[in-house]
Amino acid sequence: MLQGFLVALVATLIYMESRIGGQHMLDRPILIGPIVGLIMGDFTMGLIIGGNLELVWMGLVGIGTSTPPDVVVGSALATALAIKTGASYETTLALAIPIALLAQVGSIGVCILNTTFAHRADKCADKGDWKGVEMSNWMGSALYFVFKFTMIFLGFLIGGDVITAIVNNIPAVIQSGLAQSGNLLPALGIAMLIQLTFDKKFAAFLFLGFALVAFFNVSTIAAAVIGVICAYVYYQFAPSGKSGSMSASDESEEL
């Protein structure tokens, strides 16, 4: 009971930090797993599970009105239940995904309820009640806190079998839609990231990384090391902006 309370409290506070304190990437499985493992008395297993779950959900992003699977609830609850029951990594992965999908459905419901506080804030703003606007924002955050905490705590108490059974009772059409959106979101998120950062000068290095992995079976770490070397070489041989500005000033002085 105490472990479940602590896991729910810590995971919920980590989630709230990402919404209130700014996005510091503390709500990632690679961090949640070890913390939950420390609470459950098995830090090493928590680190292993968190690292594996990070690989699964690394590319998930919330774009626009889309709501990806709840990584915080899925990571915290699956890690806690895995350590509690002594489950394997495969079982943990199979357990984390339906938990995250179930929490995703609940998060959508919370988003809908939060529109009430948004309308309340608008009315308070029209009246010049700035304290009311502030209170409306905090009420929306409090609703998220209650939902996340309750989801993790009750999930810890009732166990993974019941959660999986609940997910299995969700209509197949809804499950199929959630599964397809979950498959598309990582690719869409990475595509949008490339669109924002794409530069013709560096496109060759991007395709070089894909070629190394696809054709030469180079590991991700090795590709990253090669990328660092390429960046260093490019930095050493590329003309610097400072030297260019100095040459321009020298030419102006000669004129």
Automatic annotation (TrEMBL):
Signal peptide: none annotated. It is a multi-pass membrane protein. PROSITE patterns: PTS_EIIC_TYPE_4. One of its GO terms (cellular component) is plasma membrane. This is PTS sugar transporter subunit IIC. The chain crosses the membrane at residues 29-49, 56-83, 95-117, 138-158, 178-198, 205-235. It is found in: Cell membrane. One of its GO terms (biological process) is phosphoenolpyruvate-dependent sugar phosphotransferase system. It holds the Pfam family EII-Sor. Keywords: Cell membrane, Membrane, Phosphotransferase system, Sugar transport, Transmembrane, Transmembrane helix, Transport.
